[in-house]
Amino acid sequence: MTPLFKTFIAFTALIVITWSCRELEPENGPGSVDWSERTVSADAIDSLAAGETYLSVYSQIYSSKEKRTHDLTATVSVRNTNSLDSVYIEKVEYYNTAGQLIKTFIKQPVFIAPMETIEIVMSEDHLKGGTGANFLFYWKKKERTPEPYFEAVMISTSGQQGISFTTQGRRIK
Predict the structure, then answer these.
(1) Whether the Cβ atoms of residue 56 and residue 130 lie closer than 8 Å to each other
(2) What is the pTM of this model?
(3) Tens-level pLDDT at each residue, the chain (173 residues)
(4) Rounded to an integer, what distance in angstroms lies between the CA atom of residue 169 and that of residue 173?
(5) Strands, E, within the chain: which ranges?
(6) In whole angstroms, what is the distance from residue 169 CA to residue 152 CA?
């Protein structure tokens, strides 16, 4: 082998190793929400009807024994079912199994356009929520506008086995 060819092989190997070892950025895939592009002033929605919805999600579920769990990816879907008016989310809170607040997703109100769906993806390696994680959504809408719809899809695959199920939000206020 010529010295130039050896250099080429070494350089190619270095690129392949570097590429395969890079860390993927969490929760920034196609379903990620840029909350800053959706903000509205609190004054603009002050007179709207308010509500609060609870949504259970699972970072993990038990399998065969209490000590054995499967890690899950959760896709939280927030849907505006109205074709004419936006709905507004004032705050999104994520809690773990013990009821401890893990993360607040927005700092000021955001809109969801008519018939739009936004998603929050909790990756499979995000285990902070545990087996009883949940979200609280604080929202506002015009009086005759339908409430936003909240749903979560949890999924995991291992070898040839797959697990998937859904949960739906429940209005609590």
Answers:
(1) no
(2) 0.75
(3) 666 655 555 555 444 444 443 333 334 444 556 767 778 888 888 889 999 999 999 887 777 666 777 788 888 999 999 999 999 999 999 999 899 999 998 878 999 999 999 888 887 676 677 778 899 999 999 998 999 999 999 888 877 778 888 899 999 99
(4) 12
(5) 49-56, 60-63, 65-71, 73-79, 87-95, 101-104, 110-112, 117-122, 134-141, 149-158, 161-168, 170-171
(6) 8
